Structure formats: C-alpha cells, structure tokens
Amino acid sequence: MTTFLRDTTTVFSREVKPSLREPVGLLFEMGQPLLFLFLFGSLLDGTVGSSWQWFVPGILVMMCLTGPLAAGYTLLVELIGGSMERMMVTPLNRTAMLVGRTMKEMIVLLVQAVLIILLALPLGFELHPVGVLTGLVQLVIFGVGLGSLSFVLAIKSAPGGTLFYIVSQSIMFPLLLCSGVLLPLDAAPAWLQTIGYANPVTYVVDAQRALFAGDLANLSVLYGTAAACAVAAVGLYLGNRAMRRGV
Amino acid sequence: MIHARGLTREFKVKKETVTAVAGIDLDVEAGQLVAFLGPNGAGKSTTLRMLTTLLPPTSGTATVAGHDVASHPAAVRLRIGYVGQKNSAGENFLVRDELVTQGRCYGLSIRDAAARADELLDLLDLRPLARRKPGTLSGGQRRRLDIALGLIHRPGLLFLDEPSTGLDPKSRADIWQHILRLRETFGTTLFLTTHYLEEADNMAERVVIIDGGRIIADGTAERLKNDLAGDHITITTSTEREARTAARIGDGTATGTTVRLQVPNAAAALPDYLRTLDGAGIKVTTAETARPTLDDVFLALTGRSLTDDDIPA
Fold this sequence. Notes:
The structure holds two protein chains of two kinds.
Chain A: H1 2-21, H2 24-29, H3 31-44, H4 51-80, H5 83-88, H6 94-120, H7 129-157, H8 162-177, H9 190-197, H10 200-212, H11 219-244
Chain B: E1 2-13, E2 16-28, E3 33-37, H1 44-51, E4 59-64, E5 67-68, H2 73-79, E6 80-83, H3 95-105, H4 110-123, H5 139-151, E7 157-161, H6 169-186, E8 189-194, H7 197-203, E9 206-211, E10 214-219, H8 221-229, E11 231-237, H9 240-250, E12 253-255, E13 258-263, H10 266-279, E14 284-290, H11 294-302
Parallel strand pairs in B: 3-8, 3-9, 6-7, 7-8
Antiparallel strand pairs in B: 1-2, 1-4, 4-5, 9-10, 11-13, 11-14, 12-13
Pfam family, one (chain A): ABC2_membrane
Transmembrane segments (chain A): 24-43, 55-77, 107-125, 131-155, 162-183, 221-239
Membrane topology (chain A): Multi-pass membrane protein
C-alpha cells in the first residue's frame, strides 16, 4: 500500500508540474465552456428562470466531459511516443499510473469549476455553499470514471490513435445534447426524452442543477450520484484492467 | 544475466496467427556486449520486449537478471534498464524533471532521485539542457537523454533498441562513446539491437543474428565471418570469355568481365591465383581482396542481404 501511495504521488506530481509551470493553459482549456456559458446563458436568460442558476451546473458537467477526454489524448500521445513504454519498464505500480493521472485531471477540474463559479457570481448566480460542495464531489466522482474510460479508449487506440479521435469526437456532442446540458429536455419530443433517460449524463446534470439550487433533498440528487458512482466503478475497473495488461 | 529457453511469441493478425519469435534459446553472461542483428521484422524488438517484461511470451521461459520475466516481472524491472526505439521523455516535461520522475519510479526518494538526475546530466553532457523540453533537443541530445533515463537506477543490464538509428555520423560516434564508457566504468551488461552492420562488427564482442524469429548465428563477428563467409577476391578481365575461364580456374563466379571467388585467406591466395591466370594467358586488368562483412555472413546464411528491407512473409 505504501508503494502504491508513493507511486501515485510520483505520477501525480509528474502530471501536475506542467500545469503549475504554465497555469494559463488551464484558462485556454476552459475557452469553449466559457464561450458556451456566456453565449447560451445570455440567450436563455429568462426562459428557464434565472439562466445562470440553470446554466452554470450544466457547463460544469460539460467541462467534466471535455477535460477527462482530453486527458485520454495526453495519454495517447505518450503511448505513441516512447515515454509510456519507458514507464512500463519501471516497477511503477500499474494502478498508480491510472490513479495518479486521474487525480491530476480532477484537480484541474476543481480549479476550473471554482473559476467558473466565481465568474458567474457577479452575473447573478446565487451561491448555495453546501449544495455546491456536494455537487463538486459528485462531479469529481463522475470525472474519475470518465477519465478512466478515456484512458481505456486511448490504450485501445494505440499505436494508431484513429479510434480515439473517431470515438471521442462522435460521442461528445450526442452525450451533451441528449443530456439537457445546453437546452432543457422538458420541451423535447418523447423519443429524445427516452434517449435522454438512457444517458447517465442526464442524471448527473439534473442532480447538479438541484444541488446548485440548494435542493439537497431532491430525488434527482440520489439518481445523479448513483449514475456518477456507476460510471466511476466501470471506468476504474476497465482502466485498471487495461493498464495491468500492459500497453 | 539472460537465460531464455524456447522463447516464443505469436500475434493474431486478422484471425491468422503470426509467429514473430519462434523458440529462441539465448544465454548472455554478465559483462558482455551483445549485438542483436537482423532485418526489419525478424523479431528483434519482439524478443527485446519479452526480455524487458513489456510483452508476455506465448510460450517458453526467460530469466533476466536472476528472475523469471513472466512470474516475477517486478523483480526483473527493478534490475534492468531499457532504452526503447522511440523517445523516452514526455514532450510536456522538462529534461531534469523527467529524470527525477524516472528515479521516483524506481522508488528513490525525492532527494536521491534529484542527486542521481544531476549525476546523469553530467555523465551524458546534458547539464545545459536540464530545463529544456525534449522537443527542443537535437536527435543526438534526445538519445543521450533516453540513455540517461535508462540508467537512473544503475542497472547491471541495459537493453538498447537501435540506440543509434536515425542519427548523423558524429552523434552516432558520440552515443557509442557513451555506451562503451558505461561498460568500462560500471561493467554494465549491454544487449542492443542495431541494423548498422559496421557497428555490430566494430563494437560488439558477440553478434547474435536473428531471422524469421529464429537465431541463425551466434559468435564473435570475426568467427562468424571466417566460418560462414570467408574472404573475397574480385578481379576483372578484358573480355567476358576470359572471365568465364578465370572463374572456372578459381572455382568462382563470373558476372560480365568481373570474377568473384571466396577463399579462406585472400591476401595469401591472390598472388598464386594471378600467376596461374597469367600462365593460362588471361589478362587481368584489376584485382582486389576484401574481408567479409556481417552482411556477407547473412547472405551466406539466408541467401538474402541484410540491407534489403523487404522480408518475405
């Protein structure tokens, strides 16, 4: 266990260093979510009550999807180059390789989430501290699962990488659009709602909205947490298996 | 240091089984410098990946640095270093950071890893590049960094997969100087693949030739050349008819006006041969002798040249 912790720290500190050295990069990664936040937020103002209250949690879930997918990309680059192979020849714990990387992504996600919330405050976003904190924990659990799944995809795609681009590009927008992140699903036709119910992201988005509104007792919080935990469990299981099998 | 028995690796490619390595037996003693030679696709890298625990063998066993690669990979990993074909350092990281991380991967404390990183920066003349990203380094500098990463834990056995490929002659010579110094200073056992024949010939005390997943020759470069290829005499005559006669006399082959013979000692045989041809009234216009190369050895063994890149499947 102590070697596992040490190895996780090793991987985590390796991964986090470039972000600490160039923190501006974190802002650039946030470009698209920020654009969406301000464009859609202004567009929808009034139609869904306070648009910021409704939109900020959605944007956080969106970041939770884009960030970890990008994490898979950085792993893919290392798999195509020789640096991953070099680490695989060391006694470094295989699970630690996964956990350390995922932890770094989660720190980045948290920093970005806090930034978004701070930016939304002057626009009229109402802060419910307990709800927001619970929401962030749920986001991190969800992100751990998504990050791991993205690492699995990267490992399966190496050494070519094409599979990674095809899957990550084609999965991203359907997941987002069928989850009500950008537009409410309430007004959607029945078939679209059915698809939405099959999408785990939908439950997380609903739960985030309830939590950010301070409504901790809402049943959707339970469903969202269950969905996030399920994705995390599947992701960690598959990710760990892929890492252990060797790359 | 390395003891492999019946080491085999198969791959499934579109439902067909392809045997990349077909039952290799290999013993390498501590302190040796072994060059593993073969054409592209012969199974060099696959063998190396099995010996370094990157790839589990389909069958057969290998004990590397005292431990079985399949049952105790972690013990093997702790004792070997590996310099792969591709660049070992991640593009996003600084040179010295990667060295420290590598030390941490082997369980060194932060302080020890940092001290060792600095030692290697000096050893491989990388000190001025410590705070650069790998992308800004030249090919030779990157290769030195790869070697430094492989040496961080002072392994007794270092595997190098084509350490000098793609480098200019000066960088190649420089890399070799570093490799040879390692051996002199630390007695490191070195197992490397290369497709530069002259490198294997000049540097390695032992050459193992692999083709089609099997070891087809194993010995010192000198012995392989003497036993399997022999010296060559090449002469040219003024007419093709004379060339054919000269070939018959010397038991060689004529191509146009050129005659080529294989003999045990060319320098001693040439004067005799020329006198005989003179007596037969054949006018020889040029004559030269050549020591065999490892390519001649490969040609003698397989009928193909090592430098041909097209390997029959």
